[in-house]
Amino acid sequence: MKRSAFLAGLMAVILMLVLGMTFYGTTREKKAEAPGRQTFSMLTTLPVETASVLARAYEAYSGLRVEIISLSSEDVLARLKDQAGEKDGAAIVLADSAVLQKAAAEGYLIPYISETNDMVPASFRETEGYWTGVWYDPVVFAVNRDYMKTLQLVPDTWQELSRTRARIGVTDFMAAEASANLLYSQMAQFGDVATLALWRGIHPNVVQYARYLSNPVRQAGMGEVDIAIAVESEALRYIHDGYPLKLVYPADGTSAMLTGTGIALGSSAQDRANAEAFADWLLTDDAQMALQGQNFYFLTTNPDTMAYKAFPGKNIVLFNQQVYFTKEQKKALLDRWVREVRLAS
After folding, report:
1. Structural domain spans, the chain
2. What is the pLDDT averaged over residues 109-138?
3. How far apart are CA 187 and CA 180, in angstroms?
4. For 223, which DSSP code?
5. pTM score of the predicted model
6. Rounded average pLDDT over 251-275
7. Comparing C-alpha atoms, which of 261, 320, 227 is closest to residue 126?
8. pLDDT of res. 149
9. Contact 109/130 with Cβ under 8 angstroms?
10. What is the domain class of 136-255+317-342 according to CATH?
11. pLDDT at 293
12. Sign of dihedral through CA atoms 69, 267, 272, 136?
């Protein structure tokens, strides 16, 4: 009798386990059948390591998983074109403003305006809401503090930098998009003749044309150069690591890489709703804290955040002329710089 009762109890436990596993498997299968309710996809030109920081933080915040699809600028546009007539494509694009401008012009994005992104200054977003900038990364002068002590006047314009005798570090325009963007932006702002004259003054003092954006900042921090022309995110990373650097913002303006979001055509209504919530979250202090926790330092475009209010250089002067050069024109400008500046002496 006891044995029968034991066996009956054991069978009941096994049955409960089987039913539980069946229910769990069915639940997982149902979730898999409706990934739009749990997961949405993001096309991005960011490196996977940067995008992953944001995806993990947002999943912890919302419970929704962001699938990262990291592609080149050209491939992002091609993917958007291919999915335009679908209903289950990627829901959001997180990319540089040049990609977003092209995507909007081709009709691959859906307008989205919210109370959050409406706070972003007009210079950082598309008027009708087709895309919104979430952060930017300006080019600055990162000056070695010991060198700064020897100066009566710290150069704070491009013209003054071209006349200084300081040892200068800069990333090769041919090696990194952010560096090349500086040259294109100066051409648009100052004109080609003035820009090439400017760099003819800077070139003799360049110790090395680096291959990576971080190298000029490291050189300035180590005293190998006096001034680095660098993106601010790299300069801030070295400052937070204790390197003796001081940031100087060019008073006559500077270029910046603007990163923003756009809601993609060709995604489901549920995915679009998830993407819109994610786009708003990217404009919060939570997103900035997630990035800074992994040593990514960008300047938020949202003036309502603590990150914006605490930033002492928020009135930085950015060039106000748009860069409209074609791919062929950009190549021609780089060729001129190589021919008339770098190889001219």
Report:
1. 38-135+256-309, 136-255+317-342
2. 96
3. 11
4. T
5. 0.86
6. 95
7. 261
8. 95
9. yes
10. alpha beta
11. 95
12. positive
User: What tokens does 195 get?
Assistant: 């820009």
Task: Judge whether 38-135+256-309 and 136-255+317-342 match in fold.
Answer: yes
22: pLDDT strictly greater than 90:
no
What phi, psi does 110 have (nearest 5°)?
-110, 135
Q: How many helices (H) and strands (E) does the chain have?
A: 14, 11
Question: Burial level of 276, CB count in 10 A (0-12/13-18/19+)?
Answer: buried
Task: Give CB contacts under 8 A, 24+ apart, made by 81-89.
Answer: 81/106, 81/108, 83/264, 83/265, 83/266, 83/267, 84/108, 84/265, 84/266, 85/266, 86/266, 86/267, 87/266, 87/267, 87/268, 88/36, 88/267, 88/268, 88/271, 89/41, 89/264, 89/266, 89/267
SS3 label, residue 99? helix
Q: Which CATH class is domain 38-135+256-309?
A: alpha beta
Tens digits of residue pLDDT in 223-244: 999 999 999 999 999 999 999 9
Contact 94, 279 (CB under 8 A): no
Other CB atoms within 10 A of residue 64 CB: 16
57 HSE (CA, 13 A, CB side): 20
Contact 140, 249 (CB under 8 A): yes
pLDDT (mean) for 308-318: 82
Closest listed residue to residue 287, CA positions, set 137, 125, 62, 48: 62
